[in-house]
Fold this protein.
Amino acid sequence: MTGALTDLTVAETRAGLKAGKFSALEVARAHIRAMEKARGLNAFITETPERALSDAAESDRRIARGEARPLEGVPLAIKDLFCTEGVLTTAGSHILDGFKPPYESTVTAQLWRDGAVMLGKTNMDEFAMGSSTTTSYYKPTANPWTRRGDNRMLVPGGSSGGSSAAVAARIAAAATGTDTGGSIRQPASFTGIVGMKPTYGRCSRWGIVAFASSLDQAGPMTRTVRDAAIVLRSMAGHDPKDSTSVDAPVPDYERALGKGVKGLRVGIPREYRVDGMAREIDLLWQQGVAWLKDAGAEPVEIGLPHTKLALPAYYIIAPAEASSNLARYDGARFGLRVPGKSLTDMYESTRAAGFGKEVRRRVMIGTYVLSAGYYDAYYLRAQRVRALIARDFTQAFDRVDVILTPTAPSAAFAVGEKADDPIAMYLNDVFTVTVNLAGLPGISVPAGLSADGLPLGLQLIGRAFDEETLFRAAEAVEKAAKFTARPAGAA
Amino acid sequence: MSLIDGRTGKWETVLGLEVHAQVVSAAKLFSGAATKFGAEPNTQVSFVDAAFPGTLPVINRKCVEQAVRTGLGLKAKINLRSVFDRKNYFYPDLPPGYQISQYTQPIVGNGTVTLDLPGGGTRSVGITRLHLEQDAGKSLHDQSPGETYVDLNRAGVALMEIVSEPDLRSAEEAAAYLRKLSSILQYLETCDADMEKGNLRCDVNISVRKAGDTKLGTRCEIKNVNSVRHVMQAIEYEARRQIEILEDGGRIDQETRLFDAGRGETRSMRSKEEAHDYRYFPDPDLVPLVLDPAWVKRIEESLPELPDAKKARFLRDYGLKDQDAGVLVAERESADFFEAVAKGRDAKAAANWVIGDFFGHLNKSGLAIGNAPVDARKLGELLDLIADGTISGRIAKDVFALMWQTGKAPAAIVAEKGLKQVTDAGEIEREVDAALAALAPKVAEYRAKDEAGRAKMFGFFVGQVMKRTQGKANPAAVNELLRKKLAG
């Protein structure tokens, strides 16, 4: 029974609870056991089993009264970037030691409002800076997948690697992630799950520890496209507490499913065929085009000419905003404080002890590019590039309805493989950052396995606030790919 | 224009002021926390003000409205699109490590403030810009010997920074500018403009140059000077200091200086080289502020009559003296009080009474107009008693003093104290006769004098009659009778 319950999708859990096949408590207990069994993955920074049980008990009462809410009894893992009231929130950083927010993020508040059950807080790259979940103060998370005939520990992608590992390993039915440059989609690709980054402004950022405010966006990580549609509906919506959240109605995304892609024009950007990309990824991409064509869509070759400038622009804009966003971690009001002989000494000692190497690197880069005399050459120029990238997409979407690309240039790599080369690490984001810079929705769908048996994802990119078309196209890829492989490390 | 005499010639001071005016609003610029003055430390602080992780700023519409109102009141250009930027620096009273301000695209552009110069005439001072920004908290160094405490009540409170062009030429002009600006802000009800409470603070940009030079000298900025008196002291000290350096063949270092009110001097705070690099960039948590022109228009239509317009009207409609009109319009409450008194009465008499006895008593008591024991209605009644001859102007002054003491209506005091003016010709004649009879030698002396001597002595007899009647006799009647009787 346990195996069966943790294998259920969000949609199946919802149906089973409604039909009385099992109780929310049984679902919660099964996932708590899975969470305990899979501690070796280090997917969670904080487990909240008691909270899960009390949430589930409430769900059972609601179900008994016939008052089930949209996510009633669905066990979720929450990335540790979301502030959760009274529950340790670390952003994967030493500097937030002991920080228990006295408030709840809007996105998680909406998930609890809709009846979801909280299993715990997942590991992540420190302050969401990374693509491997190895920069966490709380040690790396292991990918539940390993290469065929090779037991070396692989990264689950990042920064939402704890969430991707938890969902892939059947510890949680779904998880929240955040995506600044690919932090939902790349880990989804690395772990064989679905990862969805909505349009910027679709989900409130209130209560999400900020990395780069103009790029950060929360989204669901699930095992099916349908589940992503279900969970996003609860996460999304206008929030008066976030000036950048958009006041537009939230559609019932699930209803967009099952409509097929007949007549849909799918853009294939020639600039995404980058040097050094594995041949199997290129082949998978071509396979994806063929699948969509078979389903009745029309492939269209398109140009996104400024693509090659996206990564450099991203690595100026994101650190610039981060350098300012992270100034508040000064040891004065919350988290870690290392006492000093003077105020400056306290600041320096606290931040030196509290921030890891990657965070310090980005704070330094960000401070530099905003400095007098460098601002125009770096920050301002990067903003111009950003506008050009957005324009590329606007022009492309005059001709096509969605765009299909690979999610990442490689499958999951081993811990330590790229640790000494930040540039190689940054290249992980090459297909995903453009979407953040343009503020568009993107989704990664598991589409196949690499030669050594690791999952690979395909990315679909949609028009701003047209998540519905994106889900339709993603469902078509999902249906054709028939991705059923599961990791050895699954519960 | 006032010049300063140096050892080598005359010098001109060039001044521009940056005024930080606290916006009148119930809540802070980007959070819902209250802004009440004088609350217990750290009781008006939201998680946004304390920069807790994940919290976000949301603009307070009221503060935007106040900035637009102020801009319109300064006859300035309203920028329908403006942008909030982050000004980054570390300090314990600045929890996020940045202040949200407006840098390249402020909400208000060029405007004008008109100064009334002593002895009539006006002078225009250009306003460069007005922008909205957050105030910082307060570091308290006096609570514990080894530690600094921080009070965040003020952190995030909305300020308008109003920057003038370098159009001012003396400490007096700077003071006149500050007073005029305060007056406009108070009329608009966008800032209480009370320097004592720190809701109007001033940075002074100052340079000097030889009289007749057209090129600006190197300037210093004097930070955070908090009263008109201190602004004047700081300017006078700093202008002298710069002149002495230049006359000794030195040069002025561009730097930020601090005014030490205790010593009445300015001191170097940091040099240009030590200036902060604030790393301004647009705040990604906020979208550009876009104003609806129709909304701006509605605000414009709701503006009150401002001091300049009111003064012009007082001169035109009431025929007041320029200086009196200036005094009356300086505060909206005084102007309203005057108009209530003057309504249907002799406006010049009303102005004299308001500026003279009423303001005199008010200043001595330290009360606000609204709390004064004499309101406009009672002062008006007093003027009516003078006008209809019930009491003389002299007696009225005593009645006013009693009104101030007791809060009673003037008619009641006149009746109670029997101060009604004696107008009965027979009664006055009896008093005049009695007075002259008692002063027979003086009368003889008077009659022996020539015209000029008589004129000088006439007042003495008037005084004597008034003394006998405790001032109640109608002065005109007394004069006429005395003239007739003394003529012999």
User: Anything to note?
Assistant: Chain B touches chain A at residues 47, 50-59, 86, 88, 90, 92, 95-98, 148, 150, 277, 279-281, 284-287 (CB under 8 Å). The two ends of chain B are 60 Å apart (CA to CA). Chain B is about 40% helix and 20% strand. Chain B has a mean pLDDT of 93.
